[in-house]
Specification:
Elements: H1 2-39, H2 46-53, H3 57-63, H4 67-90, H5 96-113, H6 117-122, H7 125-131, H8 137-154, H9 164-184, H10 189-204
Length: about 210
Amino acid sequence: MAMVSRTTTSNRPKGRVATRQPASRARLLAAARALFVERGYHATRPQDISRTAGLGHGTFYLHFADKQACFMAFVEEARAEIDAAILGNAAKATDLPGLVEAILLAIYDYAERHPGVLVSVLSNEAVIAAAGSGNSILERWGEEWGERLKQQARQGLVARGYDFAVVGQAVVGAIHQASLASFERSRPKAALVRNLTRFITRALTPED
């Protein structure tokens, strides 16, 4: 009976800890997300994140090695959300103009639903590079664009003969710069999507 009692008692705290740990990490990540967006990466401290999450400062280091690791977790969360939005929209496209428009709308709609998140991620590319965790979000999008365009070229919807690894990065660069300039000048989203879709489609449409 004593052995049964000890086993039961020792299992209970483990179960509670296992339940608490994902919950506390989620609270820290939500707090970090809010602070990175509001204050920026450099003005946010680990103790600020812990305090905003309503947790002890030591709890932060149970989940993240440092602030950079926490920021990278935030970046990966945002990447996953944006990728899901893009894939959902792109799956509905039946031609090149539809694909371009679907991807643009997915990105801009995400930015509107999650104010500041995309800006925070894209304005801290140096932090992401320093973490050595692979490609930046823009580079990853460029790779994905390249793969999608390559698939469309196989179907005869996009001009052949391109190096799509290069073209994918070029498309993302054009979208990024045009978006920054348009939003700074408060140009309508519809006009931005229309012009970018027309520009990219004309560059990639096969010649008769």
